[in-house]
Write a structure and sequence with these properties.
Elements (H helix, E strand, L loop, with lengths): L5 E7 L3 H12 L4 E4 L15 E2 L9 H18 L10 E5 L2 H16 L5 E3 L1 H7 L9 E5 L3 E2 L2 H14 L3 E3 L4 E7 L2 E7 L2 E10 L5 H6 L5
Helix pairs in contact: 1-5
This protein binds flavin-adenine dinucleotide.
The site of flavin-adenine dinucleotide (FAD) has 32 residues, from α1, β3 and α5.
Length: 217
């Protein structure tokens, strides 16, 4: 592995979650090593649609999503990278009367949580999206939602973390975690062992396999 083989925290997975956590830890002066089996943003974070969205979430997620959206306009500057972020709104479309009714209920619940979201009918919808299919009956419109390029965001967090002292090991797979009585002591990887006090499981769809390494299901 070369160099330091100890780290206060080992983050498993170089998707947006692991990269952002590594950045936040490094920003707070915490020694962190991110271990990624392939390359940064090679998982779901390199292949998603890019919606930066508050509407349509579990209502319990809404407070943090609403706080996060306030950070997005400044994130490019903070991370020193173009994220292709545009605050151009987000629509959820309804094509059947039942779906319109369900959407109205969802919008009412989100408005009650303080989100600026509203139902729009066909006339407004055609102004927003002139080529929208005639089968769309109505939509919910959240103007403060937007889009960004997921892979750029993930790489930007990873690079910013590195600038702050985080270590990123790519092409390195975590194969085991040593632990005793609830305390982690080291992580075994395909390139050697890293002694650590904390492990963050940010392995996305592979998280269950990492959890099993410490006996969690
Ligand atoms: C800007 C942005 C917009 C998004 N918009 C949408 C959207 O519109 N719609 C939507 O559905 N989702 C969206 N998403 C979310 C996306 O679909 C995923 O949910 C998210 O990227 C998952 O991130 P993750 O870090 O949890 O997982 P991943 O990106 O999958 O990262 C997990 C990483 O763990 C690594 N790994 C696995 N096992 C090991 C191991 N043993 N050792 C080391 N590494 C390992 C993998 O190689 C992988 O790189 C968006 C994401 C972003 C960043």
């Amino acid at each position: 592995m070369g160099g330091r083989a100890t780290s206060e925290v080992v983050v498993v997975g170089g998707g947006v979650i692991g990269s952002a956590i590594s950045y936040e830890l490094a920003r707070r002066g915490i020694e962190v090593t991110l271990v990624e089996a392939a390359t940064v943003a090679s998982g779901a974070s390199g292949a998603s649609a890019g919606g930066v969205r508050q509407q349509g979430r579990d209502l319990r997620e809404l407070p943090i999503a609403m706080r996060a959206i306030q950070r997005w306009p400044h994130l490019s500057e903070e991370l020193g990278a173009d994220l292709h972020y545009r605050q151009d709104g987000n629509l959820t479309l309804a094509e059947r009367p039942d779906d319109v009714a369900a959407l109205e209920r969802r919008v009412a619940a989100e408005q009650a949580c303080g989100l600026d979201v509203r139902m729009v009918g066909q006339a407004v919808l055609r102004e927003l999206v002139p080529d929208i299919a005639p089968t769309v009956l109505a939509a919910s419109w959240c103007p403060s939602d937007g889009h960004a390029m997921p892979s750029l965001v993930t790489h930007a967090f990873a690079r910013a973390a590195t600038r702050l002292g985080a270590r990123i090991l790519q092409q390195t797979r975590v194969t085991g975690i040593s632990h005793h009585r609830g305390q982690v002591s080291s992580v075994t990887t395909t390139r050697g062992q890293i002694s650590c006090r904390w492990v963050v499981n940010a392995a996305g769809a592979w998280s269950a396999a990492i959890a099993r390494m410490v006996g969690l299901r």
